[in-house]
Amino acid sequence: AKHENLKNEIDRIKKENNDMRIELKHLNGEDISSLQYPDLIRLEQALDNGIASVNDRQMEIYKMHEKNTTMLQEENNQLEYMLHKQENEMMDGGVRNNPQERDYLYQIPYGFRAQQNQQERV
Questions:
Q1: Which regions form coiled coils (predicted)?
Q2: Cβ-contact 52, 61 below 8 angstroms
C-alpha cells in the first residue's frame, strides 16, 4: 500500500509538471491553436495581469530613481553652497589668521571619502 501511494503521488506530480509545461508554452504563445475560445480568454487575462504587474514595477522603479536623483541634486546644491561659502571666507581672509579653521576646511568629511566598489570584490 505504501508503494502504491508513492506511485500515485509520483504520477500526480508528473501530470502536474506536464500541465505546467503546457501552460508555460501557452503563455509564451506556443501551441495555442488547439485552445478553445474560453481558454484563449483566460490566457489573455493572465497575460494582461502580467503586463499590469510589470508596468507597476517599472513605475515603482522609475519613481525610486526619480526620488534618488532629486536627493542627489539637493545634496549637490548643499555641497556647492558650502564650497562657495568656504571659498568666499578664504577670499575675505577669514581663515588666514586661524590655522585650525583653515585646516578644517580642507578635510574631506568621512562620508565623502572614496570607498571600494563592493561590486568589484572577488
A1: 3-30
A2: no
Task: Look at residue 17 and tell me whether its pLDDT is greater than 50.
Answer: yes
Measure the CA–CA gap between 121 and 58, rounded to whole angstroms.
Answer: 29
Per-domain residue ranges of the chain? 1-34, 36-88
Cα dihedral value 30, 33, 35, 36, nearest 10: 150
CA 6 – CA 58 distance, rounded (Å): 44
> Which three-class secondary structure state does DSSP give residue 57?
helix
Alpha carbon distance 88, 82 (integer Å):
10
Mean pLDDT of 115-119: 54
